């Protein structure tokens, strides 16, 4: 039997066919773009619902990747579980907007932010790193990302959480988390200053060993400069007090004052 005839003659295409083909092609392309974008968004959304789109959250896999390069900032880990009432309360507080939410966004710039599921934190290789087992909990690590800074906890939150310190890394709302992140920022800044001083002290010791004469000379120069500054200011405090007493007739002579009648 002969093949089915074409819907229209090749030499005389109908108007419907000429319009339908480009339209279908356009719709197909749009669908691919939309689906692709949605898929990509799902792939890069590591927020677990906390300030999605406002903070560049990393996944645990991201920061554990051998090719991941730290930029010198410390890490903040937020361990959470879907459906957990306390996690839900924290998420609502963080996402509701207002002063604390905006402050959180600003503070997040000081950290590499990592959202971790409770399931990930419970994996055999992670239990020691993530401490404790309750959720939600927020933990901080320095730029080396080797271990959690245990001293950075919720003791400074307002009001103080768990005076018995049973849950030292629990932050119930946006306000307490702001306090915790601010404290962590100060802690790591102080740690950097201390580390720098330690390095400088070590360098000085090495210089003294290599060239003890130069080191002694530096110390002598520093002592001479201090003495000169002291003399320029009018001598010691004791000398200044003695001079004032002498001017007022109090130079070792007993003077009794009487009330004026």
Structure described in brief:
51% of the residues lie in helices and 7% in strands. The protein is built from nine helices and three strands, in the order ααβααβααβααα. The longest helix has 37 residues.
Architecture overview:
Helices cover 51% and strands 7% of the residues. The protein has helices spanning 15-44, 60-64, 85-95, 99-108, 118-121, 127-130, 174-210, 212-232, 237-247, and strands at 75-80, 112-117, 137-141. Strands 2-1-3 form a three-stranded mixed beta sheet. Helix 4 (99-108) runs parallel beside helix 7 and helix 7 crosses helix 8 (212-232).
Give structural attributes:
single chain, 261 residues, mainly alpha, three-stranded mixed beta sheet, 7% strand, disordered C terminus
**Radius of gyration over C-alpha positions, nearest whole angstrom:** 35 Å
Summing up helix and strand content along with how strands pair, one would put the structural category as mainly alpha
Report low-confidence residues grouped into runs of 5 or more: 1-20, 29-43, 250-261
Biggest sheet strand line-up: 2-1-3
> What portion of residues belong to β-strands?
5-15%
State the separation between the terminal residues, measured CA to CA. Answer: 143 Å
């Amino acid at each position: 039997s002969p093949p089915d005839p074409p819907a229209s003659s090749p030499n005389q295409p109908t108007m419907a066919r000429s319009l339908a083909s480009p339209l279908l092609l356009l719709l197909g392309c749009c669908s691919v773009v939309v689906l692709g974008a949605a898929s990509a968004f799902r792939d890069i959304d590591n927020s677990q619902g906390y300030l999605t789109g406002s903070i560049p959250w990393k996944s645990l896999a991201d920061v554990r990747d051998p090719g991941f390069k730290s930029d010198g900032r410390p890490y903040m880990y937020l361990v959470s579980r879907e459906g957990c009432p306390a996690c839900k309360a924290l998420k609502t507080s963080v996402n509701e907007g207002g002063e604390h939410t905006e402050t959180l966004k600003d503070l997040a710039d000081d950290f590499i932010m990592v959202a971790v599921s409770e399931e990930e934190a419970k994996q055999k290789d992670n239990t020691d790193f993530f401490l404790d087992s309750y959720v939600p909990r927020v933990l901080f690590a320095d730029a080396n990302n080797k271990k959690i800074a245990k001293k950075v906890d919720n003791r400074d939150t307002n009001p103080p959480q768990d005076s018995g310190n049973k849950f030292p890394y629990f932050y119930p709302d946006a306000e307490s988390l702001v306090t915790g992140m601010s404290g962590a920022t100060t802690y790591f800044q102080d740690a950097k200053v201390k580390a720098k001083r330690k390095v400088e002290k070590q360098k000085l010791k090495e210089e003294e060993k290599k060239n003890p004469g130069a080191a002694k000379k530096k110390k002598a120069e520093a002592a001479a400069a201090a003495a000169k500054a002291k003399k320029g200011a009018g001598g010691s405090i004791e000398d200044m007090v003695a001079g004032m007493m002498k001017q007022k007739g109090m130079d070792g002579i007993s003077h009794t004052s009487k009330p004026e009648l």
